[in-house]
C-alpha cells in the first residue's frame, strides 16, 4: 500500500536535494541583510535602439546563439522525475507562486500551501491554472488538491515580502488535518463574498476562486501512474489592499505590493529560503495500522512525546500492535500514538508535534475552527430611519445578528456591505413588537432570495441551510400572522422562542441555553417582577397609627395552572404548524390536483383536459350558490399550505425584554517554542460580550439587578463588553450606574435613541440628496440629521461610552477594541466637491428660468383649472421588491391642506423616512393629521411599515381621542386578508383604534359591524369616493382613483400592475397619476413575465387617462438613480387591455421583482369573489360623472416627473421641477462613473475617520 502523501513528499524532497547547502542558515548569515527600503527601479532596456530583424541585443549576440546547448530528455534512462521539477523551477523565472487557501468539505480542516506551478491564462473570464504534483484519487493526497476537489473553491493569495518566511513555512509536509495556518501564524480572514474559505490577511492581493475543471496527467516515467493534476480556477472576487491599488482599481503599485516570485525574488534583491524539514514518521509500538482515529484526549505532555528536535536524519521506532511480520500501513496511521526521536542532538528548531496541531473534536470542548478570527461590529445605532441598535458577530465563515431587527436594518446592512449569505442565527433583543421585528419579514424574504440565487448560480457563496430566529414571547405568533403574504418554501426557518425563565428552577445554574461550534449563549429574559399581595395585620402604636402589612403568598390553584400551561403548549404547537407550513412545505406552484367543479373555491384558475389529454383553461360556467354547475372533473392548483390553517390562537402583548450573554468556547493554549520540552500551554477562557435591552422600561432595571447570571462568576468570566440599549431617561438611574461600577473591568457601550446621534445612516443616498439639493433645493430639501451625541451623566461616564457604527470588539484570537472602521459622519461639503461645472450651469439656468415673471404667469394661466395646487406629494419609497441603498420600498405621502394626509402603501421604513424628512416632531405632526392608509396589494414591500406607523400614531392621539368621537380615527383601506392580518397582529402590539375599509367591495366598520354612511365617510376620510379596478399583478391587486368632492381633485394610483386600459378609463381626467415604472423599455419581456409596467407603458396609461401630471415610481433596484427617459408623445403605444389574467386576482405566473422567481398563488376564500375586472365603485353614493373625452380639455401638456426618495413637490410646481430635469440627467450621466465617484468619496470619508481616530488615540 502506498505511503501517506506527506511521507512520499518527504522522500521526493530527499531525492531532488532542493537545499544544496550543508547548513543553509550558516550560508544565509554570510549574505547581506534584506534591504526593506529598496524600491522598484524602472530603467531602459538593454538596447533601446533595437530595430526589427536585428536579433540579440548584445555585442556578442551572434556568439551567444552559437554556444552549445544540451538536449535533455525528461524521461532519459536513469534520470529521476524529480530532476525535471528542479530544472523547471530554476529555469522558468521569475515565476509567480500561488499561496493557496482551501478548506475541507465539512469545514473542520483548513489548509494553506504555496505552489510553484501557477499562472494566469485569461482575464475574461479571469482564469488561473495551478499544477499539483500528485494524483486526484481517494485517500491520502495533496491536502489542497483534496479540499479543492471536494468543495470546488479556494483563495489564491499572492505572496509579498511582508510574510515571506511565514509563507515558506506553510510548505511543510504535514499530515492531512494539520492546518498550516497554525504553523505560519498568518491571519485568516473569513470575509470572502463568494467562497467560504479564508483569505490571508497579510496578502496585498488575493483572488476568490471557483474550480472550473480538473485534469489528471499520466506519468511518462512510470506508465499507468497518475503523476500530476491541473486545476483551472475562475476568479470570482479580487481583494486588493487599499493603499496598493490605484483609483481606477486596475493597477497594483509594485512598490507597495512588493510581491515575491520563485526563489522569493524582488527586483534588485534576491532572497532564498529552504523548505522546512519534517521528520519521516513511522508508527510506534502498539499502533494499530488498520485504525484511523483522532485523539479523544490531548496527548500526554512529556519531553519525549511532545518535543520534536529535527536533524537531517530522524529515526522513529515502530512496532505493529499485533505481532505481524508485514510492514505497517501508513495509510491508516493513528497519529496520536506517534513519537519522534532524534538520532543526534543538533540545534533546536520550533516544530510543533502533529497531534497537537490537529484541530480538536467537539468532545474536547474546543471549537472546530481553531484558527479563525471573531469580531463584534456595531452595524447600526438608533437614528430616525434605523431605529434599532444592532450588532453583527462574525466567527470564521459564520455570521450572527444580535439586537433589534427594526425597519431599515437590512437596508443598513446593504450600506455597510454586511452580506446576508452567511447569516444563520438572529438573536432578537427587547420585547417582540415593531421596534424589534419590524425588519424581520423583509430580512427573511431577502435571505430566501439570496439562497435561491446561490442555488441557481453555483459560483455564488452557499447560503445557510436553516435560518434560526431567537427571541421572546410572541415571536412565533408574529411569524404565523404573516402567512398570507410571506410565500417562501426555499428557506427552512427554526423559531426558538423563550417563553419561560431558563434559571427559574435553579438560579445558581451555569448551564448555557444555546451552543454551536463557536459560541455558548445564555438567554436572559427581563420581565416585570411579580409583587406578592399584602394583607392588613394590625394597628401599631409605635408607628403613630400607620397600617402595618406583611407579605403573603396567595393560594395556588395547581389544577388551573396545569390546565393553562397545557393549553399554552397546544396553542404554541398550532402556531408552529403554521410557520412550518410557510417555510418547510413541499408545495409546488405548478402542481395541479383533480376535484369536482362544485368543490372549487373561487377565485381560482380552473383547467380541464381535452380529448387528447392536454391541459386547457376551463371556459364553462363557474360554481355559484344561485345556479347549479356541471358535475365535471377539473384541475386546480392547491392553495398555499399556510393559508389553510385557521386563525392562530389568541395571545397578548408581552413586556418581556430579551437579553443575551455570549461567549466563545475555551481555546487551546499557545505553543511554547524553541525549547526541547515544547508543549501546549493551558487552555484560554472564552471571550465574549453581553447585550442588555432596557429601552425606555425603567421597571426592568430592578429585574436586571436581580438576575443571577450577572452574579455568576463562571458565566461572567471572559465577558469583555456589555452593549446597552437604553433611553436617555435611564442613564440617570442610580442602579445602572452602580451596576456598571460593580463591573468596571468590563467595557460598557451605550446605544440608544436620544443618546446616539441622529446621524445620516445611509451615506450614499445622503450624499445624493446633498447634490440634488444643490440643483433644486425646493424639491430636494436636506434631510433632518444631527452629528451630536448625548453626554453620559457623570455617574455613568467613567464606566461607559457611546457606541459608533463600525466600531469593533475583536474576540479571537486576541481581545481588543478598535474604531479604525468606525463610520464617519456625513460631510455636507464633500459630495459637492466633485460636481461637474456643467451640472451647476444647467441648474443655475433652470433657476433663472423659473424665476422669470413671464414663466410664472404662464404657469398660473395654464393651471387655473387644477384644484388644490398646494397638494404636496412626498415619495417616501420609490424602489421595488426590497430596500436598497438609494431607494426604499413603496410608500407615497399625499398632504392636502384642509383635508389631511394620506399614505399610498406603506413599505418597510415608512416611519423612518417620515422622520428623516420632517424630524421626529414634524413626523409626529404628520401622523396626527394622517386620515387614511391605502394598501394596494399583499406583496410585503408595500405594507410592512404599516404597523409601526399605526402604533406611533395611536400613542400620539390615544389620550386626545380615547373618549372623543371617531371623526379623527385612522382608516385602513385594504383587502380583507390584510385587514385580517392587522387584527391578528394587534394581539402582539397595540395599534390603536381604527376604521376598516375593506376592498372586497363592501365598506363597513369592523368594530361596530355597521355600514358607513356617506356622511360618516366624509367626516372620517374627506374622501367620499373611491373608484377601484382589479389589475394584472397578483391576487386582489387593485388600482384606485380618489376624488375629493368639494374641490374635484382626483388622484389616481396604479399600485403594481401591467398597464390597464380599464384603469385609464376609470380615472379619466385625473389631475395626478402616480404610476409604477419598474422596468426600462428594453426589458419589456421582464415586465410581462413579472407583471409590471415599463416606462413607455406607464406614460401611455397617463396619455389615455388624460392625466394632467404624472409621477413615475416603483423602479427596479437596478436603476438606483435615474432611469432612461424616452421622448413622450411619439405616437400611440398599446396598453394591455384585459391581458391574460388581468382583473381575475389569480396571480398566475406573477413574480415580484427580486422575489427569486416565486410566484403568487391562489388563496382559498380570498377576496373579489365574483369580480371579473371592470370598474368597481367601492362606495355606492353617486357623485358627478368622471370627465370624458372633450370635457374639461386641459390647457397645457402633461408633465412627467421621476420620483426620488424624500423628494417634495407640490401639484402646482411640476413645471418648475421639470425645468431641473436636464441638470439631474447630467448629474447621473453614467452609472459606472457615478459608482466610481461614490467609492472615491467613501474612501475619502474613511481616511478622514482614520485620521480622527489617530488624533484621539494620541490625545489619550
Automatic annotation (TrEMBL):
GO BP annotations listed: mitochondrial tRNA 3'-end processing
Residue stretches of biased makeup (Basic and acidic residues): 12-22
Cofactors demanded by this protein: Zn(2+)
CDD domains in the cross-refs: RNaseZ_ELAC1_ELAC2-C-term-like_MBL-fold
Domain tRNase Z endonuclease intervals: 377-439
Pfam families in alphabetical order: Flavin_Reduct (PF01613), Lactamase_B_2 (PF12706), Lactamase_B_4 (PF13691)
EC number of the protein: 3.1.26.11
Start and end residues of each Metallo-beta-lactamase domain: 902-1115
Regions of compositional bias (Acidic residues) in chain numbering: 1139-1167
Gene Ontology molecular-function annotations: 3'-tRNA processing endoribonuclease activity; FMN binding; metal ion binding
Catalytic reaction(s) noted: Endonucleolytic cleavage of RNA, removing extra 3' nucleotides from tRNA precursor, generating 3' termini of tRNAs. A 3'-hydroxy group is left at the tRNA terminus and a 5'-phosphoryl group is left at the trailer molecule
One cellular component term from this protein's GO annotations in UniProt: mitochondrion
Region (Disordered): 1-22, 267-307, 533-560, 1137-1169
Keywords assigned by UniProt, alphabetized: Endonuclease, Hydrolase, Metal-binding, Nuclease, tRNA processing, Zinc
Domain Flavin reductase like: 93-244
Family the entry assigns: Belongs to the RNase Z family.
UniProt name for this protein: ribonuclease Z
Organism listed in the record: Bombardia bombarda
Amino acid at each position: 500500500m502506498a505511503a501517506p502523501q506527506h511521507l512520499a513528499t518527504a522522500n521526493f524532497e530527499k531525492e531532488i536535494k532542493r537545499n544544496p547547502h550543508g547548513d543553509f542558515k550558516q550560508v544565509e548569515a554570510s549574505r547581506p541583510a534584506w534591504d526593506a527600503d529598496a524600491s522598484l527601479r524602472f530603467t531602459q532596456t538593454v538596447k533601446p535602439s533595437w530595430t526589427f530583424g536585428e536579433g540579440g541585443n548584445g555585442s556578442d549576440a551572434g556568439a551567444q546563439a552559437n554556444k552549445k546547448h544540451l538536449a535533455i530528455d525528461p524521461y532519459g534512462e536513469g534520470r529521476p522525475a524529480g530532476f525535471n521539477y528542479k530544472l523547471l523551477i530554476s529555469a522558468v523565472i521569475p515565476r509567480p507562486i500561488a499561496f493557496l487557501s482551501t478548506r475541507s468539505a465539512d469545514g473542520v480542516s483548513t489548509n494553506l500551501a504555496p505552489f510553484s506551478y501557477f499562472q494566469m491564462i485569461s482575464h475574461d473570464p479571469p482564469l488561473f491554472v495551478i499544477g499539483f504534483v500528485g494524483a486526484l484519487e481517494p485517500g491520502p493526497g495533496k491536502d489542497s488538491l483534496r479540499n479543492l476537489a471536494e468543495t470546488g473553491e479556494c483563495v489564491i493569495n499572492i505572496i509579498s515580502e511582508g510574510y515571506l518566511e511565514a509563507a515558506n513555512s506553510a510548505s511543510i509536509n504535514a499530515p492531512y488535518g494539520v492546518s498550516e495556518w497554525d504553523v505560519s501564524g498568518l491571519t485568516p480572514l473569513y470575509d470572502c463574498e463568494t467562497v467560504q474559505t479564508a483569505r490571508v490577511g497579510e496578502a496585498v492581493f488575493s483572488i476568490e476562486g471557483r474550480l472550473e475543471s480538473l485534469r489528471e496527467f499520466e506519468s511518462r516515467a512510470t506508465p499507468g501512474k497518475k503523476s500530476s493534476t491541473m486545476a483551472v480556477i475562475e476568479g470570482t472576487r479580487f481583494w486588493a489592499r487599499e493603499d496598493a491599488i490605484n483609483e481606477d482599481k486596475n493597477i497594483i503599485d509594485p512598490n507597495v505590493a512588493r510581491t515575491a516570485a520563485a526563489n522569493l525574488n524582488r527586483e534588485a534583491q534576491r532572497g532564498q529560503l529552504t523548505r522546512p524539514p519534517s521528520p519521516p514518521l513511522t508508527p510506534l509500538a502498539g499502533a494499530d495500522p488498520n485504525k484511523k482515529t483522532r485523539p479523544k484526549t490531548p496527548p500526554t505532555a512529556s519531553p519525549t512525546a511532545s518535543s520534536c528536535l529535527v536533524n537531517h536524519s530522524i529515526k522513529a521506532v515502530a512496532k505493529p500492535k499485533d505481532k505481524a511480520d508485514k510492514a505497517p500501513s501508513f495509510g491508516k496511521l493513528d497519529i496520536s500514538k506517534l513519537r519522534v526521536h532524534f538520532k543526534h542532538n543538533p540545534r533546536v528548531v520550533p516544530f510543533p508535534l502533529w497531534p497537537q496541531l490537529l484541530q480538536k473534536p467537539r468532545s474536547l470542548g474546543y471549537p472546530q475552527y481553531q484558527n479563525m478570527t471573531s469580531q463584534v461590529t456595531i452595524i447600526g445605532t438608533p437614528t430616525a430611519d434605523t431605529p434599532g441598535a444592532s450588532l453583527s458577530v462574525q466567527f470564521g465563515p459564520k455570521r450572527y445578528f444580535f439586537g433589534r431587527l427594526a425597519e431599515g436594518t437590512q437596508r443598513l446592512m446593504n450600506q455597510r456591505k454586511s452580506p446576508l449569505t452567511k447569516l444563520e442565527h438572529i438573536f432578537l433583543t427587547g420585547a417582540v413588537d415593531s421596534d424589534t421585528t419590524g425588519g424581520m419579514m423583509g430580512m427573511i424574504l431577502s435571505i430566501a432570495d439570496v439562497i435561491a440565487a446561490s442555488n441557481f448560480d453555483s459560483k455564488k457563496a452557499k447560503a445557510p441551510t436553516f435560518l434560526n430566529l431567537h427571541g421572546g414571547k410572541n415571536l412565533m405568533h408574529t411569524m404565523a400572522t404573516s402567512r398570507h403574504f410571506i410565500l417562501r418554501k426555499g428557506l427552512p426557518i427554526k423559531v426558538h422562542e423563550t417563553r419561560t425563565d431558563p434559571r427559574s428552577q435553579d438560579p445558581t445554574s451555569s448551564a448555557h441555553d444555546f451552543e454551536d461550534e463557536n459560541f455558548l449563549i445564555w438567554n436572559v429574559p427581563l420581565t416585570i417582577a411579580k409583587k406578592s399581595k399584602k394583607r392588613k395585620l394590625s394597628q401599631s402604636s409605635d408607628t403613630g397609627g400607620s397600617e402595618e402589612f406583611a407579605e403573603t403568598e396567595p393560594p395556588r390553584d395547581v389544577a388551573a395552572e396545569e390546565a393553562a400551561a397545557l393549553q399554552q403548549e397546544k396553542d404554541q404547537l398550532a402556531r408552529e404548524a403554521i410557520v412550518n407550513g410557510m417555510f418547510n412545505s413541499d408545495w409546488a406552484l405548478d402542481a395541479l390536483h383533480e376535484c369536482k367543479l362544485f368543490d372549487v373555491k373561487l377565485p381560482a384558475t380552473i383547467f380541464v383536459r381535452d380529448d387528447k389529454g392536454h391541459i386547457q383553461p376551463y371556459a364553462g360556467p363557474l360554481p355559484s350558490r344561485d345556479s347549479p354547475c356541471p358535475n365535471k372533473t377539473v384541475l386546480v392548483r392547491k392553495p398555499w399550505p399556510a393559508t389553510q390553517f385557521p386563525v392562530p390562537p389568541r395571545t397578548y402583548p408581552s413586556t418581556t425584554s430579551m437579553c443575551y450573554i455570549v461567549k466563545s468556547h475555551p481555546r487551546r493554549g499557545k505553543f511554547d517554542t524553541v525549547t526541547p520540552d515544547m508543549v501546549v500551554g493551558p487552555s484560554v477562557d472564552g471571550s465574549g460580550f453581553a447585550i442588555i435591552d432596557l429601552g425606555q422600561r425603567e421597571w426592568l432595571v430592578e429585574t436586571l439587578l436581580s438576575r443571577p447570571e450577572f452574579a455568576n462568576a463562571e458565566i461572567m468570566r471572559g465577558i469583555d463588553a456589555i452593549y446597552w440599549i437604553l433611553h436617555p431617561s435611564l442613564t440617570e438611574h442610580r442602579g445602572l450606574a452602580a451596576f456598571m461600577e460593580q463591573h468596571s473591568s468590563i467595557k460598557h457601550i451605550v446605544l440608544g435613541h436620544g443618546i446616539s446621534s441622529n446621524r445620516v445612516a445611509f451615506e450614499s443616498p445622503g450624499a445624493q440628496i446633498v447634490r440634488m439639493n444643490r440643483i433644486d433645493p425646493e424639491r430636494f430639501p436636506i434631510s433632518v440629521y444631527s452629528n451630536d451625541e448625548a453626554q453620559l451623566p457623570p455617574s455613568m461616564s467613567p464606566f461607559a461610552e457611546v457606541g459608533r457604527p463600525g466600531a469593533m470588539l475583536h474576540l479571537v484570537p486576541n481581545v481588543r477594541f478598535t474604531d479604525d472602521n468606525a463610520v464617519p459622519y456625513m460631510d455636507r461639503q464633500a459630495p459637492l466637491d466633485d460636481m461637474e461645472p456643467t451640472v451647476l450651469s444647467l441648474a443655475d439656468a433652470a433657476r433663472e428660468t423659473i424665476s422669470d415673471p413671464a414663466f410664472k404667469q404662464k404657469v398660473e394661466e395654464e393651471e387655473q383649472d387644477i384644484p388644490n395646487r398646494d397638494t404636496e406629494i412626498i415619495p417616501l419609497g420609490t424602489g421595488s421588491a426590497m430596500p436598497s441603498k438609494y431607494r426604499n420600498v413603496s410608500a407615497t405621502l399625499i398632504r392636502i391642506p384642509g383635508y389631511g394626509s394620506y399614505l399610498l402603501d406603506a413599505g418597510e421604513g415608512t416611519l423612518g423616512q417620515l422622520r428623516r424628512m420632517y424630524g421626529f416632531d414634524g413626523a409626529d405632526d404628520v401622523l396626527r393629521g394622517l386620515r387614511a392608509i391605502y394598501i394596494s396589494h399583499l406583496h410585503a414591500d408595500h405594507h410592512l411599515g404599516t404597523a409601526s406607523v399605526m402604533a406611533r400614531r395611536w400613542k400620539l392621539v390615544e389620550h386626545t381621542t380615547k373618549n372623543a368621537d371617531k371623526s379623527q380615527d385612522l382608516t385602513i383601506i385594504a383587502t380583507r386578508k390584510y385587514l385580517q392580518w392587522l387584527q391578528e397582529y394587534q394581539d402582539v402590539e397595540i395599534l390603536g383604534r381604527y376604521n376598516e375599509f375593506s376592498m372586497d367591495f363592501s365598506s363597513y366598520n369592523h368594530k361596530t359591524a355597521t355600514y358607513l354612511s356617506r356622511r360618516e365617510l366624509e367626516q372620517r376620510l374627506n374622501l367620499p369616493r373611491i373608484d377601484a379596478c382589479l389589475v394584472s399583478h397578483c391576487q386582489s391587486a387593485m388600482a384606485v382613483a380618489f376624488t375629493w368632492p368639494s374641490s374635484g381633485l382626483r388622484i389616481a394610483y396604479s399600485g403594481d400592475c401591467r398597464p390597464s386600459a380599464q384603469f385609464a378609463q376609470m380615472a379619466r381626467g385625473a389631475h395626478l397619476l402616480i404610476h409604477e415604472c419598474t422596468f426600462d423599455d428594453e426589458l419589456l419581456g421582464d415586465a410581462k413575465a413579472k407583471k409590471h409596467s415599463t416606462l413607455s407603458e406607464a406614460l401611455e396609461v397617463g396619455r389615455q387617462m388624460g392625466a394632467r401630471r404624472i409621477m413615475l415610481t416603483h423602479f427596479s433596484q437596478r436603476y438606483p438613480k435615474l432611469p432612461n427617459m424616452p421622448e413622450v408623445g411619439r405616437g400611440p403605444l398599446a396598453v394591455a387591455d384585459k391581458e391574460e389574467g388581468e382583473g381575475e386576482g389569480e396571480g398566475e405566473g406573477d413574480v415580484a421583482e427580486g422575489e427569486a422567481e416565486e410566484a403568487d398563488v391562489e388563496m382559498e376564500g380570498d377576496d373579489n369573489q365574483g369580480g371579473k375586472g371592470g370598474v368597481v365603485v367601492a362606495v355606492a353614493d353617486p357623485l358627478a360623472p368622471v370627465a370624458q373625452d372633450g370635457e374639461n380639455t386641459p390647457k397645457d401638456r402633461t408633465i412627467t416627473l421621476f420620483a426620488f426618495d424624500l423628494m417634495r413637490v407640490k401639484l402646482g410646481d411640476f413645471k418648475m421641477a421639470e425645468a431641473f430635469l436636464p441638470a439631474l440627467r447630467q448629474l447621473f450621466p453614467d452609472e459606472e462613473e457615478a459608482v466610481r465617484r461614490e467609492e472615491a468619496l467613501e474612501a475619502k470619508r474613511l481616511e478622514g475617520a482614520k485620521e480622527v481616530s489617530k488624533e484621539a488615540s494620541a490625545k489619550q
